[in-house]
């Protein structure tokens, strides 16, 4: 299995996460999904990476970017991998 | 009246034997913080030592508890990459890792549809639990290209691995 540059930290059935997934699909981007704990207080892995316990969060090794908040992520993907990029 | 303790005979299984290559599969692999799809081939290729693949009863059943207590107490993680596999969900696996106090040292594959056990020839139906099947208890020690170095599959139920025999391979 190839190692994609993008890792998406997500929660099962989280609409904001699905929004990011749709955007990744839209641009044909390979990504690795890591599903985290529903309990907010136990999401230490996300906290270590992004400083917050919220999902979605992505790590893009291609650009060195780590970010959370779906609106920001969607904008980032558009700006980095969209037609305008 | 027969007061003997009767185990259920399962008979022989047609499973991968020592010297053969174990079937590859990809399933969610659960650690203490998240789960992600991981191929067994990837795990084997990246492991410094052998990979020990432990099929066990669903999380919460006493054999799962006993097996993980034993593996924990023997610290197999110091000499191998040890992963479990059961039909339990990733959520249940996370609880098992926590309850057995093996977080950080061991990971668990989740295979609710039991497809991996079928590919390994070790699936068994569960009497009295309609629609459920799970793997027989089994242990495979694999090298970096998934060649089986040691294989044990339970032929009765319940059955427990010969821990010393597994340990001798590590």
What can you tell me about this protein's structure?
The complex is a heterodimer of chains A (85) and B (170). Chain A has helices at 15-26, 44-50, 70-81; strands at 6-10, 31-36, 57-60, 65-68. With 85 residues, chain A is α+β, with helices and mostly antiparallel strands. Chain A has a single domain, classed as Glutaredoxin. Chain A has a 4-stranded mixed β-sheet with strand order 2-1-3-4, with helices on both faces. In chain A, helix 1 packs parallel to helix 3 (70-81). The N and C termini of chain A lie far apart (28 Å). Chain B has 170 residues and is an alpha+beta fold. Chain B has one domain (28-167): Glutaredoxin (3-Layer(aba) Sandwich). Chain B has helices at residues 40-46, 62-74, 90-99, 115-119, 163-167; strands at residues 8-9, 26-30, 34-39, 51-55, 81-86, 107-110, 123-125, 133-135, 138-142, 148-153, 156-157. In chain B, the strands form 3 sheets. Chain B has a 7-stranded mixed β-sheet. In chain B, strands 1-11 form a two-stranded antiparallel sheet. A two-stranded antiparallel sheet of chain B has the order 7-8. In chain B, strand 9 (138-142) and strand 10 form a beta hairpin. Chain B is globular, with a radius of gyration of 15 Å. Chain B starts with 7 loop residues before the first strand and ends with a helix. The model of chain B has no long low-confidence stretch (mean pLDDT 95). The A-B interface holds A 1, 9, 32-37, 43-45 and B 26, 28, 33-37, 39, 41-42, 90, 94.
């Amino acid at each position: 299995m190839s190692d994609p540059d993008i890792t998406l930290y997500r929660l099962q059935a989280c609409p904001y996460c699905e929004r990011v997934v749709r955007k990744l699909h839209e641009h044909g981007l390979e990504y690795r999904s890591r599903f985290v704990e529903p309990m907010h207080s136990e999401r230490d892995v996300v906290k270590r990476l992004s400083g917050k316990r919220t999902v979605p969060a992505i790590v893009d090794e291609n650009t060195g970017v780590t970010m959370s908040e779906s609106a920001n992520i969607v904008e980032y993907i558009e700006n980095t991998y969209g037609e305008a990029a | 009246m027969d007061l003997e303790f009767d185990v259920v005979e399962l008979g022989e299984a047609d499973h991968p034997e020592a010297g053969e290559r174990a079937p590859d599969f990809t399933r969610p692999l659960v650690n203490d913080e998240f789960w992600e799809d991981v191929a067994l081939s990837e795990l084997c290729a990246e492991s410094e030592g052998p990979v020990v693949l432990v099929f066990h009863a669903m999380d919460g059943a006493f054999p799962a508890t006993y097996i993980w207590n034993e593996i924990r107490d023997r610290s197999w993680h110091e000499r191998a990459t040890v992963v479990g596999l059961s039909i339990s969900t990733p959520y249940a696996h996370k609880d098992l890792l926590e309850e057995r106090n093996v977080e950080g040292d061991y990971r668990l594959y989740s295979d609710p549809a039991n497809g991996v056990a079928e590919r390994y020839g070790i699936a068994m139906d569960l009497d009295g639990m309609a629609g459920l099947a799970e793997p027989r208890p089994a242990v495979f020690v694999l090298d970096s290209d998934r060649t089986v170095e040691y294989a044990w599959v339970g032929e009765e139920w319940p059955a427990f691995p010969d821990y010393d025999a597994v340990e001798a391979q590590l």
